[in-house]
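# nightly structure sweep
# worker-07 picked up a monomer target from the shared queue
# config: single-sequence mode, recycle default, output format = structure tokens
# input follows
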Amino acid sequence: MNEQFKPSIKNEPSILESQQNQLLLFKKLETVYSNRTEDLDSFKGAMPGTKFENDYTSESINKDKQYVSYTRSKIEEANSSYGRDNLEHLEGGFQLSEILQAMIVDRLNKKWFKGCKSIMTSDYDDLRVGIDAIMKHERGGYLGIAFDFTVTNQDKKIYEKLQKNWSNNVEGGNIPTIKYFEDPDTKEKGRLLVPKFIIGASKKDIEELANAYITDNNEVLENHPLKYLILLQIEEQLQTILDYHEVNRSNIRFDFAKLQYEKIQALLRNIKNEIHTDEKMHESIDLYEYTKSSIALDMMRRFRIMREKDFNKK
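# output follows
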């Protein structure tokens, strides 16, 4: 087993339990947080002359801010009932997920995948649509992929998120809408239709990446196996969706969504080829064992089997 990714000694304190380490990690990721869309009022008057301009009035924006405030207060209330320092509870919850997404966004902006960049979504879109970050590729102008980061060792939680995305979006041929999006290049503000994918990671993944940030271990930051696992998880979900579209190919209501997912399929193949994902999977026993032990990826594969059984019933 690669020394970088050996399991932690049992009962060893988590690196994230130290407030000093948390502060240091935040400073390392400060650019990610500073680029996040926070000022919803700056969207006032966005998309003029379109059917969506009424979504960006002061009244509409204030309602969205109230929604954020109310939802955040409920989350804080739930967290406090378990104790803010209860890291085991937070493994499947809010704080570790935010740490993960910030690190992944930073890695994407430091060329984990060639030609890609990423930005965290606004609080409103995070809470309302369940999309935490968006990835953009330079090829073909604007093309986004959204991630809903899940930090858990419980396959039930992965299944619930996969099923929710399936019911809310895939089955109806819907593409989720980000309301408050500012393009990182053009600075244009407005709505963005972007397919949603669930990305699962373990507490161990987060601790390894956090430790690498804190100790400036660039080797781990550049080559952590989560980099490849992200692509495999997207690929598994994408294929399940495309199989569903194939079964429903005569239904025109799926045409637009199918086109978006086919674009992502081409993009994903390109990204995988550029970082030699398939070759590394065959050559590295450590990487193979790492992906094999992923609860999230395993659940996604089982979810695909479940959906295929549904397809065959029709």
